[in-house]
TrEMBL record, chain A:
It comes from Aporhodopirellula rubra. This is Uncharacterized protein. Residues 161-172 have a biased composition (Acidic residues). Residues 8-23 have a biased composition (Polar residues). The lineage of its organism: Bacteria, Pseudomonadati, Planctomycetota, Planctomycetia, Pirellulales. InterPro entries: DUF5682, LolB. Coiled coil: none annotated. Residues 1-26, 150-185 are annotated as: Disordered. It holds the Pfam family DUF5682.
From TrEMBL, chain B:
One of its GO terms (molecular function) is ATP binding. Gene3D superfamilies: P-loop containing nucleotide triphosphate hydrolases. This is MoxR-like ATPase. SUPFAM superfamilies: P-loop containing nucleoside triphosphate hydrolases. Residues 102-240 form the ATPase dynein-related AAA domain. Residues 1-28 are annotated as: Disordered. It comes from the Bacteria.
Length: 824, 385
């Protein structure tokens, strides 16, 4: 397995990456022992602070940073004036399955601070971790290509279960952070220190070490301890060994170029910090060339604090980026520089955090006083001293805030705390810096579709007419709006928040679309990430669609995907969604679902006319779904009122399909089933009534039949809820047909008059609901109809309706209101 | 001075020095205050104390924490008093160190009073300065009242003053407890406002005021979910650090709490019955948790919730109740019938509705649980009839 993988792409390694392979074999060996190694945790403000102190002191000529070796050329873009973190370095393979590596950088990242320091002081900067094409290729490989220090590897490799688990993990984006190891170790460390989680442990032990050099010493010791504690994880261990030996190789290179060892600062994860000395060998040329390789690309991309905190997809995150930025600001506040040795920057953090929380809370309308902030600061300090901390950590601050500012209620503070801890910061890059193939494709499309002016942060509306513009000279301009629509639909499928489809007022117009467009950094981020699914917008969208189809589990989902595919003009996707829909439909028996799906398909077919998409393959499926739904109708009509509402919608949809595609679908079957349902007494009365209404509307039921049915349904002895429920169904459609049939109203009046007191009260409930949807005008016509039956002229009836209610009548109505509904 | 003379003495001597005859013979008391019941643990902690103690405290905050959540002092094991959420205890203790008043809120039976008593016992060796709040509690009972015979005979004087528990706590610089504060009328609660913010109690009749000695604070408890509780004014809330006591989050924790407490209580009450088996405790806790949360533990079935709260405390009293039943009227071992009688009483509060809820739960959930649950199911069915 592993060998095959490592051999096949080797040829590409040499061609794509000549620079790292071109090192002469006879390297002079200069001792690495005197270089300055600084072990960090990524996204650690205290590390950044302490590191800057070290840099100021050492004044290195070169700074070596753990990061993708071949991303070194991106550094010049990182230090550009217009670049504002958070940003991230993204590396990904060109082939499927896409493997990715993400290195996020915030303002308070030690790596970022080191880069800016080097830029300010004209020192060299270089990334010294494995180049991306090797690192990415290593991800799924089990047997390390070189691992002389690892004698136990062969034994450990013989645990296939472990390997399988790994494959799953690494198939989604993996993280290069130095602390990405299994959680078990970290939880154990935190637990043994009496902390509830690792974050609290880390913050208390490391982030508050506010005097020069303390962090470096502590992190170095911690890294060594971690190496002892690490678990038997053959792949991970092997990967680390390879990375470390490559890092040593890079350090040797720098020394060979003439940098004095005392003037070299190396910044790596604390885990690697202790093994960069002379006692371990560096990677040789042979070893390097024997490493597997994959075609890979890398780019800078803007990042957001929200992404950092949510860690979605990537392991490299930071649960409270804005909070750590606040800590970074505190550490750099002027008060730290002052001669007052007792006051440390970190002491300002509690007040800073709690004040911000209270201000956010006030913005949302809940007032809390400054006195409460003071008390909360005191409580948080006390909590921290119980744990022998020097300053409160985030956990202490949160608990203190809840006890005092939130008055015991965590819910009130959830949003203010999230705002202060996570924040909304989004990074920016200068135009043109972040260039992935999908961005190129996007830019090209935006230009050719004449959408350039919508690429602004101001929200703009765009109305599209999807029909062919017959006056246009070229085909491109004739179908401009249609192409735009397809493009925007594809972006929507990729979840790029650039354009949102608005509801059109004319629901029937299949050729009109109204969009709202707004460009945002989030859209840029989403777009860059889409490159992981494909090189162009179209390919990525197709991939996303296919994923969606594979994951679809309900008929409704699959039907929606058919529609999406047609709007994105993706025939293969549409066909595969159709296949999935059919497969799911055979498993699902719910009439409401299949009818809904059939309806969805018919709208797609109607769209097909404008969409230049052959929707003919969908027609047989519509037929199939139609038959399935119609046949299931009678059986599923034994149900309660709530389910009946859904079935009424389904009946509407089926009826529309029967009308619209009368040549394709079996309309006779539909009418037959409707008749059956109308006739049956043992189904939900509401649905039977509704079936009558449809038949009536389609002219399949004449007056005699209706009047026979009415008298049968509303004959004495029929329980009020059944009789009135049936009537409710009947009145659900086509009211004019009902209003015009005087005889029916007479029958209804007679039916009501023969009910006893109890039955009458019950029937009122249902009749009220049945008439609830009628307009005032319609109600008046009903009154007139009934008046006619009782021998009152239309005028009199209208007068009566419009006169005020007498007290007695009012009381009688209120009595009805007190009817106990519990029995239903 | 007074403070100095009492603090080094053991807890026993403190209560004796008050000349309270009821506490003289420990064995005849139904339930001893925590400082007596756990006197040796408290003494051991004080003896081993290394960290500095805040003013008015008998031990350091860390030792108080050990006393409450359990641990070791030298070779001696300290029993855990509050199980489940150590963080809550840490916040409570820190609050008292910062001289803020502490308000413990929670549903009935989440060990609010229990925690408050043990905090006072550990910090001051005296958990008896208590105001038990009711709808009839007056402002005088919070501040001070008069010995009216003396007041009429000699006019207002220090001797005629009857001091409230809070008054005494302010004098001595110790903790006062205010149980069920929300059961008092809101106006009465508000007597605490200026007292807590200024830490002085004015006595206009004697034209003096009493400044609180260092170490004074108040632990109040309040119910969130009960009838007959009053709102608390925002001004008063602002003077408390509010800690919400959660219902035990984990099944194991709750079983542990129930098992320990049942063991302790049965010793205290000298119940003539064997302790219920582990299985039956687990079954009772399972039933309580499922009915409380409205779903089965595996989350697969929804169940209706009865009107009662079904707190952990109720599970404990149910089990001791069935032990009493078994001891006095049965063969001394807790039978499913004894448990069923207790369950019926705990769950069916509002005859009509709860009975249905319980019957439904029995049929849909308990019946399907297999043979281990069968005896309990049959017994419950009989009782629910």
């Amino acid at each position: 397995m592993a060998k095959r993988k490592s051999t096949s792409p080797r040829s590409t390694a040499k061609t794509t990456n000549p620079n790292s392979a071109s090192i002469e074999a006879t390297r002079p060996t200069i001792s690495r022992d005197r270089i300055h190694v600084f072990g960090v945790r990524h996204l650690s403000p205290m590390a950044a602070r302490d590191l800057r102190d070290l840099l100021d002191e050492v004044q290195p000529t070169i700074v070596l940073i753990e990061g993708l070796h071949d991303a070194t050329d991106l550094i010049r873009d990182i230090v550009r004036k217009e670049t504002r973190p958070p940003i991230a370095i993204l590396a990904y393979t060109e082939s499927v399955p896409v493997r990715t590596l993400v290195y996020p950088l915030a303002r308070y990242s030690p790596e970022y601070q080191a880069i800016t320091w080097a830029d300010d002081h004209d020192a060299d900067v270089r990334f010294i971790d494995l180049p991306s094409h090797v690192f990415l290729a290593l991800q799924p490989i089990r047997v390390p290509a070189i691992a002389p220090e690892e004698p136990a590897t062969s034994e450990e490799h013989s645990t296939p279960a472990d390997d399988d688990a790994d494959t799953d993990e690494t198939s989604d984006a993996d993280s290069p952070a130095p602390f990405e190891h299994t959680k078990g170790v970290y939880e154990r460390i935190a637990e043994s220190a009496g902390e509830s989680d690792y974050e609290a442990y880390w913050e208390r032990r490391f982030e508050h070490l506010d005097n020069s050099g303390a962090y470096r010493t502590a992190a170095m010791a911690f890294g060594e301890q971690l190496r002892d504690l690490r678990e038997d994880h053959p792949r991970e261990n092997a990967e680390n060994l390879i990375r470390e030996s490559f890092m040593r190789r890079c350090i040797d290179e720098a020394l060979a170029e003439g940098h004095q060892p005392e003037k070299v600062v190396v910044i790596v994860g604390a885990f690697h910090a202790s093994v960069l000395g002379d006692e371990h060998p560096s990677m040789t040329d042979d070893e390097l060339t024997s490493l597997p390789s994959l075609n890979a690309k890398r780019t800078l991309m803007p990042y957001s604090y929200f992404k950092l905190s949510s860690q979605s997809g990537y392991g490299a995150g930071n649960h409270a980026p804005a909070y750590y930025e606040l800590l970074w600001d505190c550490l750099n506040s002027p008060s730290r520089v002052e001669a007052d040795q007792k006051h440390r920057g970190v002491d300002d953090l509690a007040a800073g955090y709690l004040t911000r929380v209270v201000r956010e809370l006030r913005k949302s309308g809940t007032h809390r006083s400054t006195a409460e902030v003071i008390e909360a600061v005191r409580l948080s300090r006390m909590l921290s001293s119980l744990k022998q901390g020097t300053a409160p950590v985030l956990e202490d601050l949160r608990d203190a805030a809840v006890a005092i500012i939130g008055q015991g209620d965590r819910g009130v503070l959830a949003e203010p705390m999230a705002r202060v801890e996570v924040g909304t910061a989004i990074g920016t890059l200068p135009k043109g810096v972040s260039q992935t193939s999908i961005q190129d494709d996007f830019n090209q499309k935006i230009q050719s579709l004449n959408l350039e002016k919508y690429r602004s942060t101001v929200k703009q509306d765009l109305s599209l007419d999807l029909r062919e513009n017959r006056r246009a000279k070229t085909e491109a301009s004739a179908f401009l709006d249609l192409n735009r629509s397809t493009f925007l639909h594809r972006l929507a499928l990729l979840n790029v928040p650039f354009a949102t489809l608005q509801n059109t007022r004319q629901a029937s117009a299949t050729w009109g679309e109204s969009w709202q467009l707004q460009w945002s950094p989030e859209a840029e981020i989403a777009l860059v990430e889409s490159v992981l699914m494909g090189e162009t917008v179209e390919i990525a969208a197709a991939y996303q669609l296919q994923q969606g189809i594979e994951n679809a589990s309900t008929v409704a989902e699959a039907a929606a995907l058919v529609k999406v595919a047609s709007r994105c003009e993706m025939l293969p996707g549409m066909l595969s969604a159709r296949g999935k829909l059919q497969e799911l439909a055979t498993q699902s028996a719910a009439v409401a679902d299949t009818a809904g799906a059939a309806h969805e398909l018919t709208t797609t077919i109607r769209f097909g006319d404008v969409r230049r998409l052959d929707t003919a393959p969908l027609l047989p499926l519509v037929e199939e779904l139609f038959v399935q739904s119609v046949l299931g109708l009678i059986a599923s009509s034994v149900c309660d009122t709530a389910a009946a509402q859904k079935l009424m919608t389904a009946m509407d949809q089926l009826n529309n399909i029967a009308l619209e595609f009368d040549e394709r679908v079996d309309e006779a079957l539909w009418i037959d089933r409707l008749r059956e349902l109308a006739r049956r007494d043992d189904r939900n009365a509401l649905l039977s009534g509704y079936a009558c209404a449809i038949l009536l509307e389609r002219g399949q039921m004449d007056n005699d039949e209706l009047s026979r049915e009415v008298s049968r349904r509303l004959s004495p002895g029929i329980p009020a809820d059944l009789g009135a429920g049936w009537f409710e169904g009947l009145s659900g459609r086509n009211r004019y047909a009902l209003l015009a049939r005087q005889s029916m109203w007479s029958q209804l009046a007679e039916y009501v008059s023969q009910l006893d007191e109890e039955q009458f009260r019950r029937s009122v409930v249902f009749l009220r609901r049945a008439f609830g949807g009628f307009s005032a005008n319609e109600k008046r016509t009903i009154a007139e109809n009934l008046g006619d039956h009782w021998g009152i002229s239309a005028e009199e009836a209208t007068d009566l309706m419009q006169s005020e209610l007498s007290d007695d009548e009012q009381n009688a109505l209120e009595e009805l209101n007190e009817f106990d509904f519990d029995e239903f | 001075m007074a403070k100095k003379s009492t603090s080094p003495k053991s807890a026993v001597s403190v209560s004796k020095s008050k000349g309270n005859p009821d506490t003289a013979d420990a064995s005849s008391v139904l339930r001893q205050p925590a400082e007596l019941a756990f006197a040796d643990e408290i003494d051991a902690l004080i003896r081993a104390e290394k960290d500095p103690c805040p003013a008015g405290w008998r031990m350091s905050p860390r030792s108080v924490l050990t006393y409450i959540i359990g641990g070791k002092v030298g070779s001696r094991t300290i029993l855990p008093k509050y199980v489940g959420n150590d963080r809550v205890v840490q916040i409570a203790i820190s609050t008292l160190v910062t001289d803020r008043a502490l308000l413990l809120i929670g549903e009935p039976g989440t060990a609010k009073s229990w925690l408050s008593e043990h905090l006072a016992a550990a910090i001051n060796g005296d958990s008896t300065k208590v105001i038990q709040g009711t709808a009839g509690t007056t402002e005088e009972q919070i501040r001070y009242t008069w010995n009216y015979a003396m007041l009429i005979a000699h006019g207002p004087s220090q001797e005629a003053l009857i001091k409230s528990p809070i008054y005494r706590a302010m004098e001595q610089g110790s903790l006062a407890r205010f149980e069920e504060i929300t059961r008092c009328a809101s106006e009465v609660q508000d007597a605490m406002i200026s007292l807590l913010s200024e830490k002085r109690l004015s006595i206009p009749e004697l034209s003096t005021e009493l400044p609180a000695a260092k170490g004074f604070s108040v632990i109040a408890t309040a119910n969130t979910r009960d009838r007959g509780v009053n709102d608390m004014s925002a001004a008063l809330k602002r003077r408390f650090n509010i800690v919400v006591l959660p219902t035990p989050a984990k099944m194991e924790t709750e079983i542990e709490i129930v098992t320990n407490r049942v063991k302790e209580l049965s010793a205290d009450l000298a119940l003539q019955a064997e302790l219920p088996s582990e299985d039956s405790i687990e079954q009772i806790v399972t039933i309580f948790r499922e009915l409380r949360e409205g779903q089965t533990l595996d989350g697969k079935n929804k169940v209706k919730t009865p009107s009662g709260v079904l707190s952990t405390a109720e599970a404990i009293s149910l089990l001791t109740g069935s032990m009493a039943l078994a001891g006095n009227f049965g063969d001394g071992s807790v039978s499913p019938g004894d448990l069923a009688a207790g369950l019926q009483g705990a769950i069916v509060r509002d005859e009509e509705k709860d009975k249905l809820v319980w019957a439904e739960y029995l049929k849909n959930v308990v019946k399907k649980r297999g043979s281990a649950w069968r005896p309990l199911y049959t017994a419950c069915e009989d009782h629910n009839g």
